[in-house]
Amino acid sequence: MSTRSGSTEELVVRGARVLDPCSELDALLDVRLSGGRVAEIGECLRGVRELDADGLHLFPGFVDVHAHWRTPGREDEEDIESGSAAAAAGGFTGVVMMPNTDPVIDRPAVLGGLVRRIERESGVRAYVAAALHEGLKGERLTEMRLLKEAGAFCVSDDGLGTQNAGVLRNAMLYAKTAGLPVILHCEDHTLATGVIHEGIASALAGVPGSPASAEDAATATALILAAETGARVHITHVSTALSAALVGFFKRQADVTADTTPHHLTLTDDLIGSLEGMWRVNPPLRPEEDRAGVREALGNGTLDFVATDHAPHASEEKELPLEEAAPGFLGHETAFAALYTELVLGGKLSLRRLVEAMSCAPGRWVGGLGSISAGAPADLALVDLSEEWTVSERNLASRSRNSPYLGKKLTGRIVGTIVGGELVHDRIGAAFGVRA
Ligand SMILES: [Zn+2]
Ligand SMILES: [Zn+2]
Prior knowledge:
Layout: E1 11-20, E2 25-34, E3 37-42, E4 50-52, E5 57-60, E6 62-67, H1 80-89, E7 92-97, H2 108-121, E8 125-130, H3 144-149, E9 152-156, H4 165-178, E10 182-184, E11 196-197, H5 200-205, E12 209-210, H6 213-229, E13 233-235, H7 241-250, E14 256-260, H8 262-266, H9 288-299, E15 305-306, H10 315-318, H11 335-344, H12 351-366, E16 380-390, E17 409-419, E18 422-426
Parallel strand pairs: 1-4, 1-5, 6-7, 7-8, 8-9, 9-10, 10-13, 11-12, 13-14, 14-15
Antiparallel strand pairs: 1-2, 2-3, 5-16, 16-17, 17-18
Helix pairs in contact: 4-6, 6-7, 7-9
The structure holds zinc ion (2 copies).
């Protein structure tokens, strides 16, 4: 559900290096925003209000199709206001919220209430995924047509995998007739009995592991059913090399897209040697071969885009031994910088592909977002690629603190985020020099 009508005031962003893989732009240009949309891109544009972006990069606003904002139910961990502030601080101008809240978003009345709250409280565009099954239980289908009428953008049981293939097949068929894309968390719970990846690191740590097959078997089932039903299916948080290869195989025969996360692209299961609950995440951090496999698949487009799976947790749920901790990491605020630092500066991925995988590709999946072109929504991220910063509890906008990058020095920082022509994140304030 779109939430920003946009600023009608004109603004010219001057002198930024505009990089938009979608529109094939990569040059020093001025961009005029008017009526909440991009009005003109060119040289020597002047305006009543100008924003001097000399030395900065201007990208299409990032789009994150996987976030947990914890509203309703756990607003102590995140709410719409803090979740959207965290998104904006990370350059995200559009977000899809997952339905595993309390109550679960599985009825039109609950969904309608959430959509109304988003309209009042979100600083970025926020779209709601409704549950695929009542209570995310993988048993009874939700009333997808009514959920769509109430404002659902897509359906998902994220947090859980659907265990019964027949049930999943029916869900895909119904979602297809309801005209809703399905986001799938692929996990076979009969295999996923541990708390981290089953491998050398789990053996050394003496912690029960879940094998990669827990993800791979569920991904294969989902892809086979997607090909057969023709449903529009998005596989989220792909974390193994084999699952990425399976997605590649099925792209020729199914309406399927897939994402992977910043943490699966940058971290490995070696970290769990410390046994800290912080490192628990689902799917778990994998060994180097898998990290390399998902990196390659993101680079060549087999994995379409990055999604963060932003999952705030209160400290009492994370400051526990691995086996007792809640799974999940914060994601919005560090996504670009972590990937820029590790992959682009590390020579593993081009800046162009990173920007495409964070803006154009997910923007296309949502529809009509992620490009800087005349008439497009004025959703933009202004980035200082030279700024180095250390992730600390103090500089997070999220209400939670469970970032796997705490204490890490990253390069590249979002300094301004514009949604519908309005500056919703402005880190250096007046120093920007918006001239009235
Ligand atoms: Zn998930
Ligand atoms: Zn999730």
